[in-house]
Amino acid sequence: MKTPLCDFNIDEITALVEKFGQPKYRAKQLMRHISAYDSFDEYTDLPKNFIAQLEDEFTARPLTEVTRVTASDGAVRYLFKTESEDLIESVYLPHDYGNSVCVSCQVGCGMGCVFCASGKHGLVRNLSAGEILAQVLYIARDKKPVGGVNKIVMMGSGEPLANYDNTIKFIKLVNAPDGLNIGMRSISVSTCGLPDNILRLADDGISCTLSLSLHAATDVKRKQIMNIAQKYTVKQLVDALRSYFDKTGRRVILEYILIDGFNDTKSDVADIKDLLKGLCCHVNLIPLNPTDNCKLKPPTKKRAYAFCELLKAAGVSASVRRSMGSDVAGACGQLKNRTVESKAQSSKKS
Ligand code: SAH
Questions:
Q1: Where among 42, 59, 76 does a domain terminate?
Q2: Whose Cα sits closest to atom 21 in ligand 1?
Q3: Residue 348 in this model has a pLDDT that exceeds 60
Q4: CATH code of the domain covering residue 297
Q5: 10 and 158 both lie in a single domain
Q6: What is the pLDDT of residue 97?
Q7: Atom from ligand 1 closest to the CA of residue 298
């Protein structure tokens, strides 16, 4: 498989330009082309022999669009195929205050959370930094007429902190002035909670918004829905978040899926309050998006808002997140699963 050119930062592109005996100024030119174009055919102002050399070793865009579904609220779910023929999903979310892209960082996911469609078939492989970036570059071009992309959320398939090096490289690439120049404040990383890697982030120059998928405030309860809770306690996670806040000054986010009758009672409010005491944070409540074959249900809207009010009354900053795009194959991984399953069905029939 050829290396994606968008895997490289400006220093690596400069070295490449030198290796091929091209003048130094071509590095910036190449960086601009990498962000803007999906194919080497569009690099029209570069010498033909240089393009041929690049084409021999590299790919301009390491993914192609397979299908897309557009929701009534303008959200678009894209299904991409990588060079290795793996399927990955990304979502475009238009907002009044700017447009976000939710990217995948792995093919599948090895974390095995019971409510999540992405982990249904386990982890296939990590995506490279360039394969993560390519999702943003493709969508930014596609949505250029309506303002492109201003925000990134790493909340698609996969666990960013289990693909640590590529995640860090991707964030630096998308943040770079020679790249899309998206500010750290406009980049969110969501993790199921790997405390050692949370502790590394700030030291590695990352100060983005950090979201922890908490979903239950006690170890006993968390273990019932998230495998990772067998390994790390909620206390270890909150300590790691405290350290991230101390180093970056960034308020952290706790994501909390609401599951009817499981984690949305008065005693859960008390547990959340105790756990988060003294942490500068905000709790995002997300009514569960029911996945195929999963018995868990979201609470009613009324119950979700009542839980939010109880949290606020207990002194915890909280809000209920409006989930967009739920009429386009719902939560992460579902479009891929349904596409793969319907292909399997039709090949059975034929
Ligand atoms: N692995 C990372 C990021 C990917 S999932 C993480 O765990 O945070 C992004 C978010 O979507 C996580 O908070 C995850 O718990 C949540 N999620 C997964 N399945 C969901 C579902 N069916 N309904 C609502 N949220 C879901």
A1: 59
A2: 289
A3: no
A4: 3.20.20.70
A5: no
A6: 87
A7: 23
Predicted TM-score (pTM) of the model is 0.94
- pLDDT tens digits along 162-199: 999 999 999 999 999 988 999 999 999 999 999 999 99
Model confidence pLDDT, tens digit, residues 276-286: 999 999 999 99
The C-alpha torsion from 10 through 14 and 19 to 21, rounded to 10°, is 140
- Angle, nearest 10°, between helix axes 26-36 and 10-19? 120
Task: Please indicate whether residue 192, judged by its CB atom, sits closer than 6 Å to ligand 1.
Answer: yes
Handedness of CA 103, 108, 111, 116 (dihedral sign): positive
| Band of pLDDT at residue 339, cut at 50, 70 and 90 | low
Check pLDDT > 80 for residue 296.
yes
pLDDT value at residue 335: 58
Classify the C-alpha dihedral 119-322-209-184 as positive or negative. Answer: positive
Residue nearest to atom 14 of ligand 1 (CA): 213
CA dihedral (242, 216, 336, 197) positive or negative: positive
Domain containing 192 equals 63-349
Answer yes or no: do 265 and 242 share one domain.
yes
CB 291 less than 6 A from any atom of ligand 1: yes
> Which candidate, 274, 276, 192, 196, places its Cα nearest to that of 242?
276
Same domain, 147 and 238: yes
- pLDDT tier for residue 349 given thresholds of 50, 70 and 90: very low
Q: Which atom of ligand 1 is nearest to the CA of 212?
A: 8
131 and 155 in a single domain? The answer is: yes
Residue keyed to tokens 């678009």: 76
Domain check: are 136 and 11 in the same one?
no
Residues 5/34, Cβ–Cβ less than 8 Å = yes
Same domain, yes or no: 39 and 115: no
Q: Is the CB of 190 under 6 A from ligand 1?
A: yes
Give the mean model confidence (pLDDT) for residues 99-116.
95
CB of 264 within 6 A of ligand 1: the answer is no
Query: 115 with 252, same domain?
Result: yes
Catalytic residues: 89, 332
* Domain count along the chain: 2
255 lines ligand 1 (CB under 6 A): yes
Supply the CATH number for residue 38's domain: 1.10.150.530
**Ligand 1 centroid to 117 CA: how many Å?**
9
Which residue has its alpha carbon closest to ligand 1 atom 9? Answer: 155
pLDDT at position 331: 55
| Closest atom of ligand 1 to CA, residue 333 | 19
Q: Do 145 and 282 fall within a single domain?
A: yes
